[in-house]
Amino acid sequence: MFELVEPIATITFSEVVNDAFLALGMRNYWDGYFAGRAAPLGSAPAEVVHAVFYNFADGEVARHIPWVWGKVTPQEAIAVRERASADALRQQIGELAESADLVRVAELATRAALSAPTEGRALYAGLRAVDVPEEPVARLWHAATLLREFRGDGHNAALLAHGISGTEAHVLMALALGMRAEKFGRIHHLPQAQLAAVVDGLRERGLVDAAGGFTDAGREIKQQIETRTDELAAPAYDVLSADELDELIAGLEPIAAAAGEDD
C-alpha cells in the first residue's frame, strides 16, 4: 500500500504545486512545502512543526515558519495545495482522471483514510479535520495524503521507540540506499562537524562501522523500524473487506504507475 499511495500523495511536491505557492509570494520551494504540509496544524510555531515533522535538522523549520504565515493563512495554504495537487495529478495520469474506476478507487481510499485512529497521530489528526474534497481526483489525492501522514506519524513513533533521532533516521536511510550520509540530499547541506557527530553517535551505538557503513546491528534496527512502521499503518485498511482491499489495490496500480512516471 505504501508503494501505491506514495506516488499519488507526493504529487504535492511537484513543480505545479511549487509554482502555485510561488505565485502567492513564497520565496522558494521549502516555503511552500512547510506552508502546505503544516497548514492542517493551524498557525503552529516552528517548534511544534519541528516536533511533528520529526526529521528536519534543528533550525530548518524556523527558516520558513512563521514567516510563511505572514504571506498566506493556513486555510489558504490548504486550498492552494489541494487545488494545485489535484491539477498536477490530473495532468500526470491523463485519461485515467476521467475514468469511473478512479471514482471507485477514491471512494475506497477515502473510507480507509477516514477510518484510522487519531491517537498519537498529530499530523494525520490535523488533516482529518480538513474537509474532504468532492471532486474525484482531488478526493483521491486527499485520501492518499491522509494515508501517507497516518503512516508517517507511525514511522515517527517507531523511530522514537528505537531511539533514533530525525537526523539519525536520514543517515540510516542514506546507508539503506547504498549512499554515504554526506551525499544524501536531505542532510548533505548540514555542517560537516554536525553530521560527523551524528554518525559518530550511531557508531558508538554499534549501528555504523568505522568506514561509515551499516553494521549488522544497524541494518537490523533499520529493518525493525520499517516492519513496525508497516504494522502501525495497517489499521487504516481494517475497515475494508478482503475483496474491497483487493479492488483498491487493483485500482490504484495504474494510477500510481502513471503518477510516478518521470516527465
UniProtKB/TrEMBL annotation:
Signal peptide: none annotated. Coiled coil: none annotated. It comes from the Bacteria. It holds the Pfam family HTH_67. NCBIfam families: SCO6745_fam_HTH. This is MarR family transcriptional regulator.
